[in-house]
Amino acid sequence: MFIKGDKVSVLDDNINGIVVKVKEKDVTIETDEGFELTFHQGELILIAASGELMNNIATTNFSSVKKEKEIPKPRSFVKEKKSKKDEFVLEIDLHIEKLVPNKRGMSNYDILTLQMDTARRQLEFAMKNRIPKVVFIHGVGEGILKAELDFLLGRYDNLTFQDANYQKYGLGATEVYFIQKKNL
């Protein structure tokens, strides 16, 4: 790496000199003051001319080096305050695969009847337990289950329903909100 005659500088000290002897990884230099000192080659930096070292320093982007050394500031998180209404959402998946282990032998009528019975039971459960929001996942399909679900929900006076959040459920879900009557 170094050869006799190279001008070098010691990394951890303010010592400059010229290489006089190289033996494997040990380099002996003659300092500007006339002393001969031996260093490991990893402790030295090559300087072709004294101006080149200044060029290296001048081209160093100290702001990026300083930025790397800074301790990162902790990120601030803004906690969203959620009302108690949004804490629990009962999600009921009405896909037949979720309701029975095997649908073999069931007609379309049997499947739809089971799905609607499940929806009715879960609706009654939510009303009884004062759960403010229920989401029925019915899928897109041909829309028969959604139409039947809309018909069922339309028969209740104490609830409102709409398509569920598209980002979370896509097109195949209906959100039901229960209107809580205040005791006078």
Estimated radius of gyration? 39 Å
CATH class of the largest domain: Alpha Beta
Order of helices and strands: EEEEEHHEHHEHEHE
- What's the average pLDDT? 83
Write the CATH fold name of the largest domain: Ribosomal Protein S8, Chain: A, domain 1
Q: Looking across the biggest beta sheet, what order are the strands in? A: 4-3-2-1-5
Count of discrete alpha- or pi-helical segments spanning 4 or more residues: 6
Roughly how much helix do the residues carry, as a percent range?
25-40%
Outline, from the CA principal axes? rod-shaped
SSE layout and pairing:
Blueprint: E1 7-10, E2 16-23, E3 26-31, E4 36-40, E5 44-47, H1 50-59, H2 62-69, E6 90-93, H3 96-99, H4 108-128, E7 133-137, H5 144-154, E8 159-163, H6 166-169, E9 173-178
Parallel strand pairs: 6-7
Antiparallel strand pairs: 1-2, 1-5, 2-3, 3-4, 7-9, 8-9
Brief summary:
It contains six helices and nine strands, in the order βββββααβααβαβαβ.
List the keywords:
184 residues, alpha+beta, Ribosomal Protein S8, Chain: A, domain 1, five-stranded antiparallel beta sheet, four-stranded mixed beta sheet, 9 strands, 26% strand
Written description of the protein model:
It is a single chain. By secondary structure, the chain is α+β, with helices and mostly antiparallel strands. The chain folds into two domains: 54 residues, SH3 type barrels, CATH 2.30.30; 95 residues, Ribosomal Protein S8, Chain: A, domain 1 (2-Layer Sandwich), CATH 3.30.1370. It has six helices and nine strands; from the N terminus they run βββββααβααβαβαβ. The strands form two sheets. Strands 4-3-2-1-5 form a five-stranded antiparallel β-sheet. Strands 6-7-9-8 form a four-stranded mixed β-sheet. It is rod-shaped, with a radius of gyration of 39 Å. The termini are far apart. The mean pLDDT is 83.
